[in-house]
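Example 3.
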Amino acid sequence: MATLPTPQQLIASRPAFPKENWMDIKPDFKPGSFCYPAQKQTMELLHMPNPHEWNPADEDWNLPENWEQILIDAFEERLKKHRSLKLFMDICVRCGACADKCHFFLGTNDPKNMPVMRAELLRSLYRKDHTMLGKILGKKVGARGWDKDVVKELFSYAYQCTECRRCSLYCPYGIDTAEITAIVRELLHEVGLGIHWIMDPVKNCNITGNHLGIKPHSFVEIVEMLADDCEEVCGIRPKTPFNEKGHEILFITPSGDVFADPGVYTFMGYLMLFHELGLDYTLSTYASEGGNFGSFTTFNMAKKLNAKMYAEAERLGSKWILGGECGHMWRVINQYMDTYNGPAPAHMMDVPTSPITGTQFTNAKSTKMVHITEFTADLIKHNKLKLDPSRNDHLITTFHDSCNPARGMGLLDEPRAVLKAVCNNFVEMPEKTIREHTFCCGAGSGLNTEEIMELRMRSGMPRGNALRYVQQKYGVNHMACVCAIDRATLPPLANYWAPGVSVSGVHELVANALVMTGEKKRTMDLRQEDLPNVDGGDE
Amino acid sequence: MTMLEVFREHKQNVCAAWVELVLSTYSLDTKGFLRTKNDPFLNPVGDITRLCAGCLYDAMAGEDIDAAKLKDALERLVKLRAVQVFTASEALGIFYAFKSVVRSTLLPLMEKSGLTAAYLEAESRIDTLALMAFDMYAKDREVVLENRVNEIKNQHAQLLRWAQTVDGSPVGGSGKTKL
Ligand code: SF4
Ligand code: SF4
């Protein structure tokens, strides 16, 4: 009889990670662990370099003939262009402070998901071509040249990084691995490698203005349906001004909130709030996507997609821009917009100012864009909203700091101030997992695609673990966030790690609590579910 | 010594050996971190594994253990392994390996004390625990798939509602816009 392996032998079948030469471990492309490739046609339409058919699961990725030279040149060009990249390549002392800070590492326990190693994948190539020691000693000093497996490895790990920047918070030198990932993705694009879930929205945003490519007239109709739903809930149909010239404010938010559950309820929240305030604003079908999918691909694409914000403000004559709850939209606005497309059009207000309270948002002086939770927190502080937080009493809510607003722009207190004003039951998750230390939803930066659900569940584990803790300890049954991608990625994460916790944007809860002038008696929340704490509700 | 006394005496070393075994299913480079860092939020894998070890052991030994606590500890570890690039046998084989560890450490001692029959009963409880883990694993994998389906639906939920109002739509229509 053949000898069967013991349980120990069975479970230990994973190959050990060699201490010395990590370079010898080849990446593995199992279904569920990689994103579908971008379509050739999409890449052609966008004039991306070297569009071609390929599949990560195949041995041959059909790279262009001179792929190696393309990559060497492209890397050199980036090193010249971005001083920060060269610094990041040179100054890491491998202290390891970042090593265990990445949610991908914590969830997968794959050493190459330690930020220091993720960067090392590129740094090893840098050493070979750009340092004397590397040129001479090669592998001995951790230098290596390009080969096709290296390209595959870069692809694998650049798309196992959500560019969340948690690691950079702990690096004594401020090395930002997210920026390194961004560069690696750019390099891969030079040889025609991109992923479908990013490039398809990029194409759609590029052509029609929103990530699903819905035509302007249909986009308006969809928003009008949401206004109808608002009326159903509160008896008032909010205005839906589109493409109107001469309003003070242009409102831009991610289009995910127009199309996707549960984001639509956040959008309804905006409509109701603006209506109640009588805000002088317009929406736009041209700038109908706040999210910048370009920022997951290349700097140039991010710049291009960002440009329409100012272009539309100029066309419509808006004085300043109010921005909705989004993640990477704010990273781009806060960190890059000025250099990409600034200065803002000359006709815009010097300092965006709330027409309701007169507060000047000096932090937005250069970009002219104010975050909606800053705007609403200011309204609440000045007592400008009538609120009945007891309508949210059936919720014990916590708050997930989305990486980009938290670490990319320091938006930590405003959403909390708003939440506490509209909900009586608010509980924080453990200290080391919130605010600037927040754990990513595990699927940002274009990784919220369903084919890698399994990978997302492991990268989302640290967040899910903290959520489960407050669920069990304090009975938390809701998690609010200020990011449209989170509103898509957190429901499956919660469903897996802390089933029973629902997810919403902050302004959904605001509108639930908002007492509007002339409204009918509220018996339903924005999801048209009975409000249990109201007479005539379920209880 | 009673059986429980023998079990209690060896809890720490058996659990430690098993935790070591589970952690060795991860890459060598990360094992040090998993073993040394003790924080439920900053090293969840280490924490979940250690916690489960204690609960498993007590349940196996026949201690009076809170069923909900046991289920929770087991569930967390299974959930983790269900999405960590393991085959089903790699993910759940750890419970059979638990049996091997227990047997090699405790069976000789139990035999010496004439407690073999009682020991075998305890060992059978590991089988029960492994079966519970099987159910959990199957459910977890289903949730992953369910998440995929739900996500596709949710992504276009409002679009679908709108499409239903459009004239000529395959999902009905009230004659508003022509597509
Ligand atoms: S913390 Fe900074 S210096 Fe230390 S290993 Fe990480 S990237 Fe390098
Ligand atoms: S940016 Fe975030 S995902 Fe990327 S390596 Fe750092 S911690 Fe990990």
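The two ends of chain B are 81 Å apart (CA to CA). The first helix of chain B runs from residue 3 to 23.
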